[in-house]
Amino acid sequence: MHVSISRFSSRFFTTRLLTIALAVPVLVAQFLPASAQPAPIARPIHGGDGITLPAPPMTARHPVTDDYFGTPIVDNYRWLEDAHSAATQEYLKAQIAYTAEYLRQARIRPQIAQDLDGLVRMTQWTIPIQRGDEYYLMRRTAHEQQASIFVQHGWPPVNMLPTLERLISPSQISSDPNTSVSLLNVSRDGKLLIYGVRQGGADEEEIHFFDIHAKRDLPDHLPPARYFSVGFNANHTRVIYARYAPTGTLVFEHTLLKQASTQATAAGAAPVQDTLLFGQKFHGETLGQLDLISARVTEDGHYLTITIERGVPARRVDILYRDLRKENSPFVQLVWGIDSRFRVLYDRDHWFVQTDYKAPKGRILEASAGTMPDAWKTIVPEGQDVIDDVSIVDHRLFVHSLHDVNPRTAIYSLTGQSLGELKYNGIGTASGLFGNADGRYGFYSFQSMIQPPTIYRFDAKTGKQDIFFEPDTPFDSSQFTVRQVFYTSKDGTRVPMFIAGRKDLPMDGSRRLLMTAYGGFNISETPEWNAQWAEWMQLGGWFAVPSLRGGGEYGESWHEQGMFQRKQNVFDDFYAAAEYLIAHKYTSPEHFAISGRSNGGLLMGAAMTQRPDLFAAIWCGYPLLDMLRYQSFLIGRFWTTEYGSSEHKPDFAWLLRYSPYQNVHPGTHYPSIMFFTGASDTRVDPLHARKMAAWMQASSGSDRPILLHYGVKGGHSAGVSSNQLIEDYADSLAFLWTETGKR
Fold it and tell me: Interior CA angle at 292 toward 290 and 296, to 5°?
């Protein structure tokens, strides 16, 4: 699940509250009182490659019965929802030891860890923020645990290394290698910088302000929280930020202190003293918990824009602006009250929007306040391909789209005249073009399953492309191939899939194959680089990624086909991909591994409960699994605009049909499963994995291992150290590789 508005800024989300009544399914054994359920059978466990374990730790059942519209649902492991209880801690202690014993016997793990050391510890750069002749970026070298914030001074001549200066290092902030920093913003005059500090994989960040010339922090800081935007006002004397609170997002203005404090506890003006700009009521409407708000100041400093996304994914997006050149000017509605998605762009007092309003694949309009979108001028009409992102660089529109999930970027004038195309090489994933509306240069990255991200600088005036950063990797891409195929899902829908592996791999069904997918929240699954998947291919396995419905690969209609009561389409697309790969001899069920996290973890839960016959091993990461209760924990209520909620009768019926936790059937021969989560996941509550692991261990009729991998630092967001990442990847891949080999 993804909550940060910045993550969603280039994608549109739609939700219609569907209230189609569904018949309640026939009750199965797991809905009966505990006394009526078969007792778990304690039997030895046999993993791949000769691994043997005792029966998994016995977990007590304390049944709690809930009544859903006349349907009783029993939860035997409700007590595991309390992460801090002594009983839960004892449960975790036993599970961690049990998983450690499995990994101790996994003979392939040392080799995988050694290989990953080279694949993970590559020097990495991020796309820079350009301010004049300075380029601000994140950079991590091969020997470092975390990335630091750097500035590159100028554009280096040919064959010369760039002049880099380290500004902020996480090792200077904390001795904990799982403390990370992130570059959030740089003032237009290049004097101040905003950065975040994160602990482990938590979503929350602490916000700091850095004087670039003095090379020191300002005394101000903002406490750890979920921030949806942080930026400067026009003259860089104040910071405007949007922070999530349990009652909803609030936008504040914070006045910066210019003198460094001699006391470490001094934090400038405390957030409670900051000025509230927006976020409680507007236009007679109370803004609530599910309304996510971001605030931006236009590049010329003239306007403050407010974007309100209603839910995740948003069913409606509202946009307002205020003229900062006028004292106490009111907010003006650019878009309000329309059940569609809008994203605003601005250049020289002209407003543009990317929208799916009456255009499921997207279009670009020039907007004006006081009128409806039907009256606005169309700059780029809806086409065959879905518009994925739009930016303005050098006063030109760069429209990034997906053609059968392959990147295309067309260039237009601000009046809609076609000016050509930005070219890419081969199958892969391209970012949008990042730059300034009045700047000459933009930056983008390109990567694929067999190529780490390379960053390019694009000259918008000449069309010339230069490499800004190219990684040096031990992975020999020339030995591997990526292909795209199309297969037919259960209902006849054509679905694309990317497959990668060594060029000389035979297709006789004997090879291991790992497939991952997501299928939700309008997020497109494109062929990207990942050190784990590269190692899987180096070991000799195929790797596959289908682009399931629920994503954004073909626009909003593709997304809607995987939402609410249509969620089963996502699962059916996934099973059809597996059947295609088996039928075409890429692999066979005994060599088939699958992996997914977050919403993809829900997909894994559906796969293990609906089609355990198709797969030998499943890695289920940071998952949603109890779909009757997910909305009650952490920020789960945001996602009711994608899944619905069991608090509503029609939604309860379809959620019960597929919710993995409620569809475990005792005695079923389940495949090998590793549930993977961490105590620092502040987005999807780890209770899902805790409860599901206990239930599956008690219910499986096979002798395959069911493991719970539970970390302390791990969470939904990036932020763990290189060492921790290598350990986590090695544990995961060792499990999947071992359980898809000979038994």
Answer: 170
